[in-house]
Amino acid sequence: MIVLAAGLYAAATLAAQDTKTTRDGVYTDAQAARGKAFYTANCAKCHLVDTTPGTPRLEGPVLAGETFFNTWEDKSVFDLSTNIRLGMPPDGSVIVESGQAADVIAFLLQVNKLPAGQAELPSDNTARAIKIARPGAESPSR
Q1: What is the rounded distance in angstroms from the CA atom of residue 54 to the CA atom of residue 100?
Q2: Which residues contact 68 (CB under 8 A, 6 or more apart)?
Q3: Residue 53 — pLDDT band, cuts 50, 70, 90?
């Protein structure tokens, strides 16, 4: 019963918060740099972030441009983090901690030309309130 009450409280708290988007500067450049290092060591063998025409493709989907946004737009950063933590790499050869997933997402946001901000992207449940949006006009939540 206590767990249910805690879950309901957390859901109500998240609903009360303003939803942000990735246009709102939800990561830092330092976090993206950590994410790039993790991506290079663990993700780059299967996933590209280069969308230049003629770039050879790898086994996994491209994590930038149209391919990225067609998959993740309007979903929460928490959804992407969960996918990374529980599904990547598919062979289970690397354990991805929640902080590492947040760092990789910060790098992906940077690669996808979304602005950095003053606070790091959260690696906890509060990331549910941040929706993935294409770069462009300022977020309507601002």
Answers
A1: 30
A2: 61, 62, 108, 112
A3: low
